[in-house]
Structures are given as structure tokens and as C-alpha cells.
Amino acid sequence: MKKFVSIFSLFFLFILGINSCKKDLSIDTGNTGASALGSVLDSLGNCQQIIVHGTYQVDSILTDSNYLLIKLNIAGRGKYKVSSDSSNGFWFSDSGFIISTGIQTVKIKAHGKPLLPIVTSKTISFDSTFCQVNINCGLFPLTTNTDYFPTTIGSNWTYYYGTNLTDTSVTSVTSLYAILGLNAYSIFSDVYPTPPNDTTIYRKDGNGNYYQYTKLLDSSNTWIDYPFLKDNLTVGSYWESDTAQGILNGQNVTIKYGFTITAQNISISLNGITYSNVITVKEDPYLKLTSDPSTAFILQSQSSDFSAYAKGIGWIATTYPSSPTYNVTIKRMPNIQ
């Protein structure tokens, strides 16, 4: 899909699992006042699997369908209590009686309600031992099919690469998603004429801003989240990406991109099809030596390009005036779900 440089696949997925397991209940053991001894860690000192069940939505009171399945390494039977902190308005807590030693799975209920749509890290404690689990509190990608960058699952596009219109690639929105920091991204699978294939990651905020999470240079260790399109701005509007550092031609450099809306609500014909309600964006790379002051950025005009996005269709073309062999155009009307 649309990108400035080849990137490696990067996404962190939070998957909700469903297991059925019953907690050992209290029975007469002859010492019902004793506390269970053990750990949330395995014999090597590593946190054991914690399975998150249920959905966690902002302002929705958590119910019996919201719980954790936690493995405890029990050294001494007795009463147990497993609990978490109460960050973001909710917590996990439950207790019972365990009659067997070894690895035991217990069900820990959720309480309260999430306050913010963020990934919330919970610290789970038992008998002075601790582990963490991340809870996705309703942070799902914003998926629409009527704006300038559809992200609905199953949508797919076919593109020509170059000037001979023979090489094609296929991009589709997968059924997975990525959570990076406090943002949720849709994942696009890119299949090129020759391997390797790729994965690109995008999000939008519902206010006309569209973002990609990527590296601006292959040599960079910095991944940034930058807006590549703003459909709420007028012609001539300008914005920039954050900066990233890397190595280019043996030099430590800092790069950023500048974006300018060059046209709105125009029609473009590509490969026999006319696309209306198109926005075009000029994309200009700026470079400087990392050791130079921030005012030393130089426009790399020979690497500027123009990208076009059609409403309800998505990315339809990118042209490179100085390198037309790298041009990309949409081959046919895409399949938008």
C-alpha cells in the first residue's frame, strides 16, 4: 500500500481468548483458616499465561463475562486471593480455596467500568508475586468505506507499478488489527509482483486525518505516526511529519516530510476509469545532517511526489515527476466492502 520506503511488518496484536475452567471450591480440609502459598510465576520465574475474556468498552459496567483465567503455581493449599490495581476505572479481584498443589487455573472476575479507550496495563498479584496483562478497552480501528481511505475488512485494490502497465500488486485489509501506544490501526496486506511482500499499518481519527505508522528511512530505528492526508483542509494547506533519524550514504541524517494539498474535488482518469471527488497531495522530503541545527533542512525536490485519493475509493495513484518508472496507478475499480 502507499508508503515512502519499504518497511518491516510491525504490529502488536491483543487477542481475546475464551477458555472454560472452573475454580476449585472450598471443601473441608481440616485447616480452612490457612492461606494458600504460591506464585503467579512458573518454576523459572516467568509470568504464566493470562487469558482475557470479554469485551471492555468505555462507560460499560463489566459483567460476569469479563474475567481473567490465570495459572497459579500452588505450593501450599488454602484460601487464596488474586487482585489487580484499579487503573482506568476497573479492576480484577476474586478469592476461593485451593486444595491441590502444582499448577492451578483460577477465574478472576472484573469489576467497575473502563473510563478511557486505551490499552490498560494491569498488575496482577498473588502471595507477594506479580505479573502484568494488557487489556484492550474498546480501542478498535475506526473502519469506514465512504471516506478517502477505506479501511473496512476485505476491501482490496490492484495497482500497476511502473510505466509498462504489466506489473501489478494487490493490497487488502486483513481481519487483524494492531494496537501501538494509544492508537488502533488497520492492517493492510501488500502482495507485490516479486517477493518480499509487506504489511502496512494505517489509522484515521474520524476528523479527516489519516495516519501511517512507518519508518521514513530503512536505516532508521524510529517508527513514527504521521498524517499523510487531511481531507478537512483547503488547497494550499501545508503540514509536516515528525522527524526521524537514520543513515544515508554513510551520513547520520534527519528526515521529515512536508505535505501540501494541491487539488480538491477534481476528476482523474486512470486506465479507462474516471474517479471523481479526488484530493491530490504533494509530498516533499527534507533532509539535514543530524549534527546540523534544525533550520538546516534542505528540500529534496528530486524526490518529491504527488499522491491522489478518491472519496470512497482510497489511494488511486502516486507519480514521481523525476522517476516515472516508479509511478503507481490503480488498475481497476477496487472492491470496497
Could you explain how this protein is built, in words?
It is a single chain. The chain is mainly beta. It has two domains: 37-136, Immunoglobulin-like (Sandwich), CATH 2.60.40.350; 156-330, Beta Barrel (YmcC-like fold). Helix content is 0%, strand content 51%. It is built from no helices and 22 strands. It has strands spanning 37-39, 50-53, 67-76, 78-84, 90-98, 102-112, 119-126, 129-136, 156-161, 167-180, 183-191, 198-204, 209-214, 224-230, 238-240, 244-248, 251-270, 273-289, 298-299, 305-310, 314-319, 328-330. The strands form two sheets. Strands 9, 10, 11, 12, 13, 14, 15, 16, 17, 18, 19, 20, 21 and 22 form a 14-stranded antiparallel beta sheet that branches. Strands 1, 2, 3, 4, 5, 6, 7 and 8 form an eight-stranded antiparallel beta sheet that branches. The two termini are 17 Å apart. The relative contact order is 0.14.
What helical percentage do the residues reach? under 10%
> In whole angstroms, how far apart are the ends?
17 Å
Overall structural class, as computed from helix and strand content, comes to: mainly beta
In terms of DSSP E residues, the strand content is: over 45%
Shape: elongated
